[in-house]
Amino acid sequence: MAKEKFWLNIDLRTQRCTIHTANCSHRPHESEFKNVRSIGRDGGWMPFLDYSSILKYKSTHYPSFVLWACRRWDTRKKISEGKKAMGKRARARGVENVESGRKNL
Questions:
Q1: Less crowded by CB within 10 Å, the N or C end of the chain?
Q2: What is the tally of structural domains in the chain?
Q3: Partners of residue 35 on adjacent β-strands
Q4: Domain presence at residue 56
Q5: What integer pLDDT is reported at residue 3 of this predicted model?
Q6: Taking a C-beta distance cutoff of 8 angstroms, is the pair 85, 52 a contact?
Q7: pLDDT score, position 96
Q8: For residue 73, what are the CA distances in angstroms to 6, 20, 22, 38, 43?
Q9: Per-residue pLDDT of the chain (105 residues; tens, 9 = 90+)
Q10: Which one, of 49, 38, 45, lies nearest residue 17 by Cα?
Q11: Domain of 56?
């Protein structure tokens, strides 16, 4: 089984999806109303292997939600890892600007 490279935090209350890398300090966790690998009352955390899968899932299931890059991508190492993993399409959508703060994708 392949290991996920990204987690998508889906927040139904704020209608926001936030992308986290697998090594991000903000880790997926179960709560009373938010699940890991499934959607609960307030949302959930879904694993993905690549950025294009995230975009496809989000546009299919949550087209009106805002897509964000995690604000914890604040070190050069994490940013470069994220950019390499996400590829040219993600960079074209603005991921290279995450070092200046939270980026609406």
A1: N
A2: 1
A3: 44
A4: yes
A5: 83
A6: no
A7: 41
A8: 12, 8, 11, 24, 22
A9: 568 899 999 999 999 999 999 888 888 989 999 999 999 999 999 999 998 999 999 999 999 999 998 887 643 344 444 555 555 555 544 444 343 444 455
A10: 45
A11: 6-100
Crossing angle of helices 76-92 and 51-61, in 10° steps, is 60
* Residues in CB range of 69: below 8 A, 6 or more apart: 18, 19, 82, 95, 98, 102, 103, 105
Query: How are strands ordered across the β-sheet holding 66-69?
Result: 34-36, 43-48, 6-11, 16-21, 66-69
Given phi > 0 = left and psi -120 to 50 = alpha, else beta, which region is 3? beta
This prediction has a pTM of 0.68
Own/partner pairs, 29-37, CB within 8 angstroms, 24+ separation: none
Q: How do strand 66-69 and strand 34-36 relate by DSSP bridges?
A: unpaired
Residues in the chain: 105
Let me know if residue 78 belongs to a domain: yes
3-state DSSP assignment of residue 34: strand
Residue in the block written with tokens 């950025």: 51
Alpha helix ranges (H) inside 13-104: 51-61, 76-92
